[in-house]
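Continuing from yesterday's entry. The apo prediction looked reasonable, so today I'm repeating it with S-adenosylmethionine included to see how the binding region is handled. Same sequence as before; SMILES copied from the compound registry.
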Amino acid sequence: MNSPELPATDQSEQFSASATDKVGSLRGEQLSKYKFIDLFAGIGGFHLAFHKAGAECVFASEWDEDARLTYEANFKKISPKLFESNNFVGDITQVKKSTIPNFDILTGGFPCQPFSQAGFKKGFEDTRGTLFFDIAEIIKVKKPKAFFLENVRGLYSHDGGRTFQTIKETLSEDLGYSFHHAIVKASDHGLPQHRPRLFMVGFRNPDTVFEFPKKRGLKFNMSDVMNGKVDREIGYTLRVGGRTSPIDDRRNWDGYRVNGKVRRLTPREGLKMQGFPASYKFPVSDIAAMKQLGNSVAVAAIHDYAKQIIYSLDNPRG
Ligand SMILES: C[S@@+](CC[C@H](N)C(=O)[O-])C[C@H]1O[C@@H](n2cnc3c(N)ncnc32)[C@H](O)[C@@H]1O
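Holo prediction written out below.
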């Protein structure tokens, strides 16, 4: 099967400046109050971004013990009810979907898995046994107003494009949501890292007008991150594997020349590259912290989209 055409990387460019200005001037973060859930929560990049946009997290799922420690250390204070109500759960496949509290927006970056090759029928039933099936089932049972899913760029061409097509058809044709997608770079949302990721957004009311947030320039560069002269403005995309490879090795992503000397990126610097605040805590080893950062989202890009999703929910006709 042919891969689907790549979405215009720069779809956000088609987006008029006025829409973002509207978001800015209405300050959606203060006027709106929506509930969201954080699936495959990791260290809470979605939680932080949607909390900042004025929404409240009512349910989260993450099964990795180290990631759970980091999540709890950082979100217990800002979302105490999530923990008091025991709605920060582990394995999502074990959750009876009807027991999830009501919410408006589903968010999550899920592991990419191939779907069943059986038969010609695509859609919901084909996704059974995968983690995307759990997402689709939650949407089917809970009928949120919107979803925002994130994944690696490779999901787009994964399995000859079949994975993406099945996801799109399940959400739009089977579940009746609108479906918008784009490859989004963190560096187009202020952060010094390319980190191209597939963003997928949809609304239960498929006529809801949604415009991609406007791109913005870098807010700071790698010299600011590493507090010294770095020979590249935009850093390497944070990853999980390949750490401490020799600086000129193609797998290297954490070694930089700073003021002419090679040194490794620290977790605090990685946090800054991903758009987390300086106050963010890591109650785990540096090795675990770097793995968690490699898995995480670019918070500034997610926040720009969160504001735009909330704007669309408040103004479905644009
Ligand atoms: C790509 S990461 C998402 C990171 C997250 N968006 C963030 O901002 O940090 C995917 C996460 O899903 C978690 N995960 C995988 N399978 C899971 C399951 N069955 N139930 C709950 N969490 C799961 C992994 O432990 C991992 O932390």
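Comparison notes:
- The two ends are 37 Å apart (CA to CA).
- The beta strands are 35-39, 56-61, 88-89, 105-109, 146-152, 180-184, 197-203, 255-258, 261-264.
Will overlay with the apo model tomorrow.
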